[in-house]
Amino acid sequence: MVVVPSSGALRSKKPRAAVGVPVIDLSLERSKLCESITKACEEFGFFQVENHGISSDIISRVEMEGHDFFSKPACHKQRAGPPSPFGYGCKNIGFNGDKGDLEYLLMEANPHSIAERSKSISTDPTKFSCAVNDYTEAVRKLACEILEMVAEGLWVPDKSIFSDLIKDVNSDSCFRINHYPPSLNDDDHNNNWINNIDNNPKPGQLFDNINNNHSTTKTRIGFGEHSDPQILTILRSNNVGGLQILSRDGLWIPIPPDSDKFCVFVGDAFQAMTNGRFVSVRHRAMANSVKPRTSMMYFAAPPLNACITPIPQLVSIENPCMYRPFTWGEFKTTAYALRLADHRLDLFKKQHVV
Q1: In this structure, are residues 234 and 173 in contact, taking their beta carbons and an 8 Å threshold?
Q2: DSSP letter assigned to residue 249
Q3: Roughly what angle, to the nearest 10 degrees, separates helices 125-153 and 30-43?
Q4: What pLDDT does residue 14 have?
Q5: Which residues are catalytically annotated?
Q6: Which residues, including other chains, have CB under 8 Å from residue 134's CB and lie 6 or more apart?
């Protein structure tokens, strides 16, 4: 596995030996799973799972619906947009100037909303909504299973303390499909690349420049550096590379593509609920492949009125409470008001905590 130094000014440490990210087999004995998942959340804020039990039929049906949509002419796709924030979007990420080399569909992960949204997405809305609902229900169950094993790994008496937030009928979870077009040829790149050489790409910039031994490699940024605000993210992509996670010492670690595995990310809300014991992993998607890349994300979120606060078992004199209580709705509003790369959770830290 190759590691790539981050371009951020605060991430200037020399590269270290590559460390493989955890791949967890969900068919193993439960006590070992609880321990392995908790350790992965602590050390990486990220892991992959295999033998997850989600059928290939459920996966292939929603993938095909996504493929059919993104294959349409632009004028047809635009009928499902612009995103508000839900719907079809292209290039623009959010409302504050962030851009990426991608197009996407974003939907609320509940059957009624998906059924309504599908009317502007597909010529066969029933087929589309059934495929998406079956998939989101399957990954929701996977997310809840993982959250319950985390609670066991943390020795929390109430094993459903995290998963109940996702199971709630008013859960604010959402589902997203990203489509990254194939890389242009070299001549097209030369005509389209940003010319300014800058190792700290500015917000919204679509290209990064990495200096290696006095040569410059220009890379297309599909989706810039960020953390996910929710509790947990379950991601699946096709067999095309691009995903990178940021290690604790500031190195970008490319995640080898594997369509048989799901990627699991700790989100900001989970970091707050575990009093910083878990750290929401910062990640990005590059778009340098000559093949199109598609990724599907289920963002597991609590209801808007849910109170996010560190659980009592992880607060002590030695580990004082790091974050003030806040609702998911309050945090979500803050996230939408900030740029993609902002460290939004810092705004909710208690002042006396260093």
Answers
A1: no
A2: T
A3: 90
A4: 34
A5: 293
A6: 58, 61, 62
Whether the CB-CB separation of 265 and 45 falls below 8 Å is answered with yes
Q: Give helix 111-121 / helix 125-153 axis angle, nearest 10°.
A: 140
- CA dist 113 and 121 (Å) reads 12
Q: What does the pLDDT look like over 180-215, one tens digit per residue?
A: 999 865 444 433 323 322 334 444 455 555 444 444
Residue type, 248: R
CA–CA–CA angle 106, 112, 118 (5° rounding): 50
**How many residues are recorded in the chain?**
354
What type of residue is 202?
Answer: K
- Cβ contacts of 212 within 8 Å, gap of 6 or more: none
CB atoms within 10 A of CB 216: 10
Structure tokens at 131: 């495929």
* CA end-to-end distance (rounded Å), the chain: 35
Q: Find out whether 94 and 85 touch, Cβ atoms under 8 Å.
A: yes
Maximal CA-CA distance, the chain: 61
pTM of the model: 0.87
Tell me the Cα Rg of the chain: 20
Read off the DSSP letter of residue 278: S
Looking up tokens 């909710």, which residue turns up? Answer: 348
